């Protein structure tokens, strides 16, 4: 049959825009039967992006057990517009690619997810914009606000198990109490754009309340010696504070109560 005539990439690979250009050059893809070369090696000579994936354990070709046996999934000579990939995904553990499908069993309208819902163009290249566009279809207001606050690189924080919907901060080493329980995530993690960066948020009172400190560091950094998380202004005076400083603080007020 005729070779595929459509290009799967924006530019030529190995100087060739489509397999159809090789219709009379069988040796470009087929190694001599008595030689030492392989057809897979000739595929990878052009498809350099796939060759790079073979060493990446988070990429599709990197986790497939027979990734260099191209004909297992890729077909040719089926016509100029025939699909070049025959892969149902059945039995494949998608979590090995760093994104579980545990929370993506069905679309918003109840239809089972198909590979093409996230991977378009007849290939399995992930279309990152699909996260945002799909979720906007049924939770537009939330997604608009979420993207404004956190950006649209969804996979930097989400890996498919929806770990933030019922997230409890007391499962971490930094337990929230008092007014901290009412704080918005962005109040402490506003600059975070990747999951690992959550761990870099301040973990001490002073680390977070430095800008609220009306004592300007004169009383040290152990805010909890005077303040509590129930009410920032409900502070106990330290016995070792000298009279001048006590009078000065009373004149200014005990605290701004801004972040609690």
Please describe what this structure looks like.
This protein has about 260 residues and is an all-alpha fold. It contains eight helices and no strands. The chain has helices spanning about 40-45, 50-55, 60-65, 130-135, 140-150, 185-190, 205-210, 245-250. The longest helix is centred in the middle third of the chain and has 11 residues, at about 140-150. The chain is elongated, with a radius of gyration of 29 Å. The N and C termini lie far apart (about 70 Å).
Low-confidence stretches: 240-260
Shape descriptor reads: elongated
Mean pLDDT, to the nearest integer, reads 81
Largest sheet properties? none
Structural class given helices, strands, pairing? mainly alpha
Question: Mind telling me the C-alpha Rg?
Answer: 29 Å
Order of helices and strands: HHHHHHHH
Distance between the termini: 72 Å
Topology, please?
Elements: H1 39-46, H2 48-53, H3 60-63, H4 129-136, H5 140-150, H6 185-189, H7 205-209, H8 243-252
């Amino acid at each position: 049959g005729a070779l595929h005539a459509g290009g799967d990439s924006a530019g030529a690979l190995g100087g060739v825009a489509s397999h159809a250009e090789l219709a009379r050059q069988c040796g470009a893809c087929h190694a001599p039967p008595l030689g030492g070369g392989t057809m897979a090696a000739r595929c990878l000579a052009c498809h350099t992006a796939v060759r790079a994936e073979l060493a990446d354990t988070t990429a599709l070709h990197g986790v497939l057990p027979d990734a260099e046996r191209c004909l297992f999934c890729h077909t040719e000579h089926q016509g100029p517009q025939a699909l070049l990939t025959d892969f149902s995904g059945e039995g494949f553990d998608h979590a090995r690619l760093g994104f579980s499908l545990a929370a993506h069993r069905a679309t918003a309208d109840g239809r089972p997810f198909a590979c093409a819902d996230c991977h378009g163009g007849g290939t399995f290249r992930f279309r990152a914009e699909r996260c945002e566009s799909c979720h906007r279809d049924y939770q537009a207001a939330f997604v608009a606000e979420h993207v404004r606050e956190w950006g649209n690189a969804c996979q930097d924080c989400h890996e498919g198990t929806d770990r933030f919907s019922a997230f409890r901060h007391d499962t971490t080493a930094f337990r929230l109490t008092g007014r901290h329980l009412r704080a918005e995530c962005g109040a402490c993690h506003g600059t975070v754009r990747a999951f690992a960066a959550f761990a870099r948020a301040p973990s001490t009172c002073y680390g977070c309340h430095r800008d609220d400190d009306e004592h300007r560091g004169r009383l040290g950094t152990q805010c909890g010696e005077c303040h509590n998380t129930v009410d920032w202004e409900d502070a106990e005076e330290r016995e070792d504070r000298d009279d001048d400083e006590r009078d000065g603080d009373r004149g200014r007020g005990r605290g701004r109560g801004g972040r609690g």
